[in-house]
TrEMBL record:
<feature type="domain" description="RecX second three-helical">
    <location>
        <begin position="170"/>
        <end position="210"/>
    </location>
</feature>
<dbReference type="GO" id="GO:0005737">
    <property type="term" value="C:cytoplasm"/>
</dbReference>
<dbReference type="InterPro" id="IPR003783">
    <property type="entry name" value="Regulatory_RecX"/>
</dbReference>
<dbReference type="InterPro" id="IPR053924">
    <property type="entry name" value="RecX_HTH_2nd"/>
</dbReference>
<dbReference type="GO" id="GO:0006282">
    <property type="term" value="P:regulation of DNA repair"/>
</dbReference>
<dbReference type="InterPro" id="IPR053925">
    <property type="entry name" value="RecX_HTH_3rd"/>
</dbReference>
<dbReference type="InterPro" id="IPR036388">
    <property type="entry name" value="WH-like_DNA-bd_sf"/>
</dbReference>
<dbReference type="Pfam" id="PF02631">
    <property type="entry name" value="RecX_HTH2"/>
</dbReference>
<keyword id="KW-0963">Cytoplasm</keyword>
<feature type="domain" description="RecX third three-helical">
    <location>
        <begin position="229"/>
        <end position="274"/>
    </location>
</feature>
<dbReference type="Pfam" id="PF21981">
    <property type="entry name" value="RecX_HTH3"/>
</dbReference>
<dbReference type="Pfam" id="PF21982">
    <property type="entry name" value="RecX_HTH1"/>
</dbReference>
<comment type="similarity">
    <text>Belongs to the RecX family.</text>
</comment>
<feature type="domain" description="RecX first three-helical">
    <location>
        <begin position="127"/>
        <end position="161"/>
    </location>
</feature>
<protein>
    <recommendedName>
        <fullName>Regulatory protein RecX</fullName>
    </recommendedName>
</protein>
<dbReference type="InterPro" id="IPR053926">
    <property type="entry name" value="RecX_HTH_1st"/>
</dbReference>
Length: 285
């Protein structure tokens, strides 16, 4: 916006500059080079563009000035000086100052949004997508991974916020999927699952909600000792396999073996005791 206002101000004072200000490609040299030149702000530029060093014409964007444009700019810079209007104290004193001011303002605002470089944000997004393509992550895990790659914190937080708003990151879904997977494949209980999710940075509210959905199946009135009847039946089937494997052991050792197996997987004593009693009743020694 500042660059646009400055260009309009120059066009108001010098209408013939309209052709030159239509494109940034006409700016023959960057503002840092103009600042090294020693000429008065009240005097026209004492040389033509053809007298500038070759490297000054290239610039960081590799600009090429044609002979016709060179001639036009040379004629404009050799004209009378650009005077300040009474009601425009901020107008550039010379044609060169006008270009220098516009170039500096545009260079400072290039590809910067909210203090974060656009190219940096794209690099963070690319790294995040590559990580999520390999496996799912919680918000906390992904943030740690990206910071470990030495990305700026503000760029990482911006990408995390964007991914969450687009549904690419959701701790609630992650917690439920993790809980169900560990329960069905490894027979983990609520206690161990909650501990693992908290270590991954999932909030307690999301952890509790996920374990309730998995172990209570949405029917809290049909639960026993914190898990549903269906979940208890599934657990009994897995515990029965452990019970049969220790059939050559004495009863006490057999019972202790199943108790350790259940408690290691995160089941409380109420569930463990209920399973052991049921095993003894249905599979007597």
């Amino acid at each position: 916006m500042a660059a646009l206002a400055a260009s309009r101000r120059l066009l108001h004072l010098r209408p013939e500059l309209g052709l030159c200000l239509r494109s940034r490609a006409l700016i023959p040299y960057p503002c840092w080079y103009l600042s090294t030149l020693s000429f008065s702000r009240r005097d026209p530029i004492p040389f033509s563009i053809s007298q500038l060093p070759q490297n000054a014409l290239s610039g960081r964007r590799g600009l090429v000035v044609s002979a016709a444009r060179n001639k036009q700019l040379r004629r404009l810079t050799s004209d009378e000086q650009v005077t300040r209007g009474k009601d425009d104290d901020d107008a550039p004193a010379t044609f060169a100052d006008g270009f220098a001011q516009l170039s500096c303002e545009e260079e400072e605002s290039d590809d910067v949004v909210g203090g974060i470089s656009e190219s940096m944000v794209k690099d963070v997004e690319k790294a995040a997508v590559e990580l999520l393509a390999a496996r799912a992550f919680t918000v906390s895990e992904l943030r740690k991974k990206l910071r470990a790659k030495k990305f700026p914190d503000n760029a990482v937080d911006s990408v995390i916020t964007d991914f969450k708003s687009r549904g690419l990151l959701n701790d609630g879904y992650y917690a439920e999927s993790f809980s169900r997977s560990r329960w069905l494949s490894s027979t983990w209980g609520p206690k161990r699952i909650k501990q693992a999710l908290r270590q991954k940075g999932v909030p307690d509210a999301e952890v509790d909600q996920a374990t309730r959905r998995v172990f209570q199946d949405g029917h809290s009135n049909q639960t026993m000792h914190g898990i549903s009847e269906d979940s208890l039946d599934h657990l009994f089937a897995q515990a029965a396999k452990q019970w049969q494997r220790g059939q050559s052991l004495p009863l006490e050792n057999r019972r202790a073996r199943v108790v350790r197996w259940l408690q290691y997987r995160g089941f409380n004593w109420a569930v463990t005791n209920a399973i052991v009693r049921k095993l003894e009743a249905q599979h007597p020694p």
